[in-house]
Specification:
With about 375 residues, the protein is mostly helical. The protein has a two-stranded antiparallel ribbon with strand order 1-2. A two-stranded antiparallel ribbon has the order 3-6. Helix 7 packs antiparallel against helix 8.
Length: about 375
């Protein structure tokens, strides 16, 4: 099987109409209003009480990287968003130590409260730098981000037990895929992609549990997405097939009565009850990311259903039937319970919403492009 074998033929008019309905029905435009509310001239506050930033909890690299990624994904960002991208990138550069990794947590006093390490936030930092190097809204953002991507990529050999290795390398691989898209053959990017594939490994032989880890955890769709990206940019059909197979298994496991029922905050393994709570917005966003990449790699329209289920999770088509969007603030609620939602609107949750709605907007163009 070659990569081209995954490509579908041109859809019929009826199929195009169904695609249009699937992708565009009732999807709002992403709002950056709450992201702006959560930001200042230093960075992005991590937590909120309702929609009001908890300034006393300070900033973290994890969320700043997410904020930088969604702004760089905007096709025509406003001047205000370009300014935020510059603030977020400056924060990330300040967090980066070229020899040891990244700091993660800064207090409101603008003092780092930890030492630079190569934890999971290192992978997110490399992801954000790679995205900014490819899609940054200005030439100077792209140039600086590419330089510091190279610095961050060199530290992957220093990943230690403080990092979830598979996830850290998967996040770094997504940044490397961005660089490889803008600079085909880029040595550091291709090396990160290859190393990530080795770290994640092949699917396990048990068809009931092919997952490369003993338990499902936070942000797992990034693992098959990284394998798909590695297959795309290295031309390795085995990696592509492995990534698609793992993603299909994970998405099937996380589909209940036709809607997304993602892994809860505490993780999940065989024998645990389903549906399970507390569900987090970042899980739905991770499925949207991975399914969108699977579609670009294969043109198989089943992945569009995965993206649409991710969008619908925010709109209330979820295990509790509760919308997760606050239309008044532009924010997203932090978690979904059996019959409740967390009223707080932290940075991670709101960025997850923005990211997912960005995919919905992008996918709206697919019927026209397929015609």
């Amino acid at each position: 099987m070659t990569i081209d074998d995954h490509l579908d033929t041109r859809p019929s008019d009826q199929e195009l109409q169904e695609l249009q309905r699937l992708l565009t029905g009732g999807v709002p435009e992403p709002s950056f209003a709450h992201l702006v509310r959560m930001s200042d001239d230093t960075g992005l506050f991590e937590h909120a009480r309702g929609p009001i930033p908890k300034r006393w909890h300070g900033y973290c690299v994890d969320d700043v990287t997410r904020g930088l990624i969604v702004i760089c994904r905007e096709p025509d960002p406003s001047d205000q968003l370009v300014r935020l991208a510059e603030i977020y990138l400056a924060f990330l550069l300040h967090a980066q130590d070229r020899e040891r990794g990244f700091h993660n947590r800064m207090g409101l006093d603008r003092v780092w409260h930890d030492e630079p390490e190569t934890g999971e936030w290192w992978g997110r930092g490399v992801w954000a730098l790679g995205t900014a190097a490819n899609r940054g809204p200005t030439p100077w953002i792209r140039a600086v981000a590419l330089e510091r991507f190279d610095d961050g990529a060199k530290l992957r050999a220093g990943l230690g037990p403080q990092s979830r290795l598979n996830h850290a390398m998967a996040y770094a691989a997504l940044g490397a895929a961005e660089v490889a898209e803008a600079h085909p053959g880029h040595p550091a990017a291709l090396s990160v992609l290859a190393d990530a594939a080795v770290t994640i490994g092949r699917p396990a032989p048990d068809p009931a549990w092919p997952w490369p880890e003993p338990r499902l955890e936070y942000g797992d769709p990034a693992l098959p997405e990284a394998l798909i990206a590695a297959g795309q940019h290295t031309g390795d059909e085995t990696l592509l097939r492995d990534g698609l197979g793992l993603l299909e298994w994970l998405l099937t496991l996380s589909t209940r009565d036709g809607h997304l029922s993602p892994t809860p905050a505490g993780g999940w393994s065989l024998g645990d009850p389903r549906p399970a709570y507390h569900q987090q917005p970042i899980e739905a966003a991770a499925y949207a990311d991975a399914c969108a990449r699977a579609y670009t790699a294969t043109r198989d329209r089943k992945w569009l259903t995965g993206v649409r289920m991710s969008v619908d999770w925010f709109l209330g088509v979820n295990d509790s039937g509760i919308p997760m969007i606050d239309d008044a603030t532009g924010g997203c609620f932090d978690g979904l319970g059996l019959d409740w939602r967390n009223p707080n609107q932290g940075a991670e949750s709101t960025i997850a919403l923005i990211s997912t709605l960005q995919h919905a907007r992008w996918l709206e163009r697919i019927p026209a492009e397929a015609a």
